[in-house]
Design brief:
The complex is a heterodimer. By secondary structure, chain A is an all-beta fold. Chain A has strands spanning 9-12, 18-23, 34-39, 46-49, 63-68, 71-76, 85-93, 98-101, 105-109. In chain A, a hairpin with a 4-residue loop joins strand 7 (85-93) and strand 8. Chain A is globular and about 40 Å long.
């Protein structure tokens, strides 16, 4: 059971905008920044969003992140087939003294 | 090119030991803290352990505390994870990961599979 809570699945059609939610508590999301990772099938995770809403170099601006209180969300606009992947949220947890992850959301592009 | 390459995974019996290695290249390894993160088959990501750049600060997840030992050799640009008293629930792909700020990891290795089974 993961510390952060994500929906197990999400879907959309090409061109649509989809959002993935991530819920935590005061010891993690409530007091620290949120990061998002994309994991394509059979590959290592890739940092997609850091510090709530910052994109590393090379990540398209179709991906955006936001945070409010103890929740965060990842939005993907102009959905493309290559966006089909697992998405994980993560944040530092002050109680556990380490980073914690969500259980992951499998995004299907219909 | 910034790169992390893990090795040392394999099949081990419950109660056995294994030592994972992670070779870093393309960046100044000695200035970064490093981490191990694992992913059980079909499951999500779980942080395992972290070590500061000079090995002064070391942290473990409760699930591995007392059984796993993280270490590094800055002269060899290498990170290690000594895993003892292995259990079936330790079966996972183990990734080494470089941090980018607090709680995020911007560089990941390809992972090495550890299977604990009799």
């Amino acid at each position: 059971q993961s510390v952060l809570t994500q929906p197990p699945s999400a879907s959309g059609t090409p061109g649509q905008r989809v959002t993935i939610s991530c819920s935590g508590s005061s010891s993690n999301i409530g007091s620290n920044t949120v990061n998002w990772y994309q994991q394509l099938a059979g590959t290592a995770p890739k940092l997609l969003i850091y510090s709530n809403n910052q994109r590393p170099s090379g990540v398209p601006d179709r991906f955006s992140g936001s945070k409010s209180g103890t929740s965060a969300s990842l939005a993907i606009s102009g959905l493309q087939s290559e966006d089909e992947a697992d998405y994980y949220c993560a944040a530092w947890d002050d109680s556990l003294n380490g980073p914690v992850f969500g259980g992951g959301t499998k995004l299907t592009v219909l | 090119e910034v790169q992390l390459v893990e090795s040392g995974g394999g099949l081990v019996k419950p109660g056995g030991s294994l030592r994972l290695s992670c070779a870093a290249s393309g960046f100044t390894f000695s200035t970064y803290g490093m981490n191990w993160v694992r992913q059980a088959p079909g499951r999500g990501l779980e942080w395992v352990s972290s070590i500061s750049s000079s090995s002064s600060y070391i942290y473990y997840a409760d699930s591995v505390k007392g059984r796993f030992t993280i270490s590094r050799d800055n002269a060899k640009n290498s990170l290690y994870l000594q895993m003892n008293s292995l259990r079936a629930e330790d079966t996972a792909v183990y990734y080494c990961a470089r941090p980018r700020g607090v709680g995020s990891f911007d560089i990941w290795g390809q992972g090495t599979m550890v299977t604990v089974s009799s």
